[in-house]
Fold these 2 entries.
Entry 1:
Amino acid sequence: AAVFRTVFLGGLQPRRQILPLPIHTVQVGGVRHAVSGSDEALGLCRIQPKGGAGSHGLVKSGEIVLKGANKNFFENKLCAQLRHKSKLHGSFEVTRAQSTVYIEPLDDSCDMDGMLADACKVFGIVSVARAAVCEKNMDSICETIRAYLPDKLAGKKTFKVEAKRADKRFPLDSMEIASECGAVVLESVPGIRVDVHNPEVTVRVEVRETNAFVHPGPVKAAGGMPVGSNGKAMLLLSGGIDSPVSTYMIAKRGVHLIPIHFFSFPYTSEAAKEKVIDLAQTLTAYCGKMRLCIV
């Protein structure tokens, strides 16, 4: 009989199954539980928090905004993925409003840089920005620009300001907000000048429901649709390049995947099997929690 080995990847809690054949359970994603196998080959490590309170993460979804009555289903899947990722980096609150997801650190021990780096790998997100949060008035916004942006714009020669007034009750329109904020940037950052056509950096000012946010532009993320929003599928995972690429591309369309690897001992070595486990572990950064089945 073939020996069936199940490896759990990317989860924070290992699942348990009773099988008639030997089973090894491995948890990947910061915490390790292994019955047997090579821990060193898996290269697992716990990520230490580095701090990050005082700023928020602004996450923008892509195709999800085109959805209709079922939009909440996709947004809930996306927030669930982010909450799962956040457990590795500290205590965060993940909320959503008006097609924007907010990531708020709840204490000084949170690793905001690590959290936002992981958010960029979550399918369904097109951009991530680390923003300073302030009250919804021009005095507070201008003061935040003076305190937050000079370091971010150091070495930049040109800029422009784009403003978004999601709260239409705000007394100034988007053009007026951008004009006033641009003047503050010119005063606060020596040697920088305005270029509305080809700026090196675009400063964003977003006036939203409860607060205003200031940031020097977003970082491009993975895009696609949230994993789990488009059903489940099984795939064959080998040690080559084709199957990992297809895994990534299918998961990007929202499919939750269960990879299967056929270990043909003695025709293939133990190193070949560990290589497949390493590939699957790498894919969990994008594809989320997966159960790798080795036959």
Entry 2:
Amino acid sequence: LQATLLIYIAIGVYCRKKGIVSNASESELVSLAIDVILPCMIFNSMTTELKSIDWMKAAAALIISSATCAFAWFLGSIIYKNASKETKPSLKIGTLITNAAFMGMALVSNIFGSEGVFYASIYMTVSRAFLWSVGIGFFSKTAKGNALKSVLLNPNTIAMMLALVCVITKVHIPEFVGSAIKNVGNASSMLSMVVVGTMVAKLNIDDIGNSKAVVFSAIRLCVIPILVYLILSMLHIDKVLRGVIVLLTSLPAPSMTPMLALRYGADEKFATIILMQSTALSLITVPLLTLMYC
């Protein structure tokens, strides 16, 4: 999965180097990804993953997932309290959310089977809620305007709310509409990483070894999943649920980070560095943590 991600990034690098994508078109691609394609992906994945719910298991997964995200939010707020205004949003959102939407479900399915996929779908629903509320608030503070308005009227928040309504009320949308939404949403991973690739093309080799990014990667890939494992073990949480949460919290920074930084005027370059560095290091840390704790 990481290899696939790197291929998409390489395509973006090529497009930037060959002049196929400019600064202006890069911003337009970010808008297309955030405002159109990602909402379709969120709506389709939530209405598909949560179609059949075991409410007792869902309640347990919801509580644990919410507590895990809240813990990461608190940890990020403490650790990066004194970070610069330009880098703080990326550091905090990278601590709060992982790249579970791109990498998580396939890994969970291979290791934990259908029960794990169910727990993962609950976790990702919770993480999306945090991303498009708390997370978008991190970036909105760096830009002019009403942060609350940015959160509530964000297309991704609206898509998430509509999906939850459809799941709870069991409303079925017409098949041709659902098919169109699914097909548009399927482009999200590819387009997001190609856009990231256009940003990577602007980096220097020395940027990848950024010391602040190294500290971030250590916290994101090792410290948080190990702390989560220890806490959930002390609480005697179901082994499969614990394993799923630990695995999903061990993944690298979300691919959305550089695009949000570009959209809201944060440090796009630094956001790209922490994404690239944590993704590369996860090739080593994720298999090790999976063997140790899952």
